Structure formats: structure tokens, C-alpha cells
Amino acid sequence: MKIAIFAGGVGTRLWPLSRKNTPKQFEKIVGEKSTLQLAVDRLLPDFKLENIYIATGQRYEEIVKSHLAEMPKENFIFEPDMRDVGPAVGLAMIHIGREHPDTPVAIIWSDHFVRKERRFREVLKMGEHLVSKNPNSLILIGQRARFANQNLGWIEFGEILTELRGTRVYRFKRTVYRPTLEETEKFFRDKNFAWNPGYFVTTPRFILSQYKKFTPQIWEGLMKIQEAVGKSSYPAVLEKIYPTFEKISFDNAILERVDPKHISVIAADLGWSDIGAWEALKEALEIKSGENVTRGKVLINDSNDNLVFNYTDQLTVGIDLEKMIVINTDDVLLICNKNSVPKIKKLVESLAGTPNEHLT
């Protein structure tokens, strides 16, 4: 199986650590490696480096290669412009599919946290097995919900189709993107729903056939780019065609339109978390609910349910803090309530055109 790790997001919800020039996937958020490095590490040794591809923006070429110096250079797929995940998945698929059109390919993300790494690899192999048996299929991987999270997408599934090593495979029904709190509470009680990490396994031939069917303009451009792969004309062709693609998510472009009969769901507890926002990172790292999570030189007394990350040499001290996020970097100190984290993105956007724009 081939695996494509996507590492092109900006990650403004993890500001001020994550910024345009050094987004979250290149930062040491968990431990002493970047989340991109951790995403590769958790695949080893079951999957080899030569079967792992990295898809990211051209602007990050230097930094991504420095983080993954052992990766074969031909396994880097660089997008010349940000056109959202729909075109990005297509570009990865034409590269991998050029020589391996019917080989199972897993799509995963670089900025997530997976506590149960062995289980994660087992589920990927199950997806590989299912797609090998039926190349015209797409296997969604769901994380069993731990709480009613309205900041994530959800997958609804139906009856059991088969069982692999004690893990059930379900018939796909639908995806729901960021439902209301009332809906998520209902989903959480209903065991036929799971969080949607955005992971799936399919084949390049099948998924590109869906591009041809549902986004013909993008498909035509992808075919022209594929013809140039490996040739001296490739950079010019890519630069000419890729920026013309519609900015569209993979879900809107493909997933929501694929005939559900082609889609199955593996729902399992992977210990997965989307650490794309500070409150989500806290939930992923805490051992028990409500405890303080800290990093760096931090001292907090008489405080509960806080995340305090200090990236400076100066001591950060807190007293009587409750449900707070404190992020201290060399040039920005962020202090906000856990419930105010969604406002960070708007604040960062508001800095455009101001004397503080360089901090974004």
C-alpha cells in the first residue's frame, strides 16, 4: 500500500505557535518532533519510507525536506498554489497512480495525534485488504467518539458488512460536517456515528474516475499534469494548470457525490485527536478530564483545566486559573478562555494590513 500524508494547512487556530511561514505541522507541539515527523514515525516499521508520500505547498519545500531528510526526493508532491483539498488529493493521486493505478492508497493528515499507533496501523492494513479485494471502493476510517464534539465532522454508518480480526466494517450512510451541539449529543448517544478524521483508503484509478465524473475540468487538468510528470516540462505545466483549479474541498468535490455503494466504514478507537486547535490539543494530551496540561517553564497554583505552553526561557506563572489557554512565544503572549479559541482565527485575520501583520 502507498500512503499520502497531507501537510499543507496553515493552522491559524494554533496561533501564535502556528503561522503562515511555519505552520503547525512543522512545529514540536507533542514531544520533541514535529507533527509531520510523528505522522511518518507512526507508520513505521509496518510501512516503508519508499511507500510514503508527502503532499504540501511549494513554499514549504525547504522546511519539509529538512524534517524528512531520509524520504526519497521523488516522494514529495508540491502544490504551487493553495486550491484546497479537492485538487490536492487529485494531484497526489496522479503522481502515485502513474505507476500504481490499482494499488491501495491511504490518505492521512500530518497535524493529528494518534495515541494507539499499533491499532492505527492495523486499521490501515484492513483498509488495504478491503480495497485490494474491490479496487472500485473507498474505505472511510472513523474514530469512535469520546464526547459530543461539534468542531469535527461525523460519519453515519449502517449495518455490518463484514468483520476483520474482530473489527467490524459497516455500510456507509452519510457524512455530517460540524453539526450543531444538539445534533452531536444525539450522534454521541447513537453508536452508528463516529468522528471523521478525514482518513480513507482507495485506489488512484477509482478516485480519478470520480474526478472525471464529478469535476471534469479538474480531471482534464490533472490528466495534462500527469502526462508531464517525470519530464522537464513538468514544473511549467504544473504552474500553468494547477492554480486554475476551483478551490474546493475533497468532500464537496468528490466524497458527497460518490455512490454510497462504493463506500464502507471502519469505525475503531485509534486514540485519535485533531490537534488543530488549542482546546483539542488539551483534550488529546490530558490523562484525566479537567487536569492542567503544561509545556516548558511553567508554574501554576490553585488552577484547574488549563493549557499553558511556554516556548520561551522566561518562567510563566499562573494562579487561580480556570479553563484558560496561555501560549507564550518570543513575540506573542496569547491568553484566552478555552471557549474563546474559535475567535483566534478571526483575530489573526484582522491583523492583515496592520503593523502586526508580520506576526501572522
Quick gist of this model?
The protein has 360 residues and is α/β, with parallel strands linked by helices.
| Helix-strand sequence | EHEHEHEEHEEEHEHHHHEEHEEEEEEH
CATH class of the largest domain: Alpha Beta
How much strand?
Answer: 25-35%
Largest sheet: 5 strands, mixed, barrel
Mean pLDDT: 95
How many β-strand stretches? 17
Q: Name the strands of the widest sheet in spatial order.
A: 6-9-7-8-10
Structural class: alpha/beta
The radius of gyration is 21 Å
CATH architecture verdict of the largest domain: Alpha-Beta Complex
CATH homology-level superfamily of the largest domain? Spore Coat Polysaccharide Biosynthesis Protein SpsA, Chain A
How many domains? The number is 2
Form type: globular
| Number of discrete helical segments | 11
Low-confidence stretches: none
- Helical fraction equals 25-40%
- CATH topology call of the largest domain: Spore Coat Polysaccharide Biosynthesis Protein SpsA, Chain A
> How far apart are the termini?
38 Å
Question: Your description of this structure?
Answer:
- This protein is of the alpha/beta class.
- The chain folds into two domains: 276 residues, Spore Coat Polysaccharide Biosynthesis Protein SpsA, Chain A (Alpha-Beta Complex); 58 residues, no CATH class.
- Helices cover 30% and strands 27% of the residues.
- The strands form four sheets. Strands 6-9-7-8-10 form a five-stranded mixed beta barrel.
- The model has no long low-confidence stretch (mean pLDDT 95).
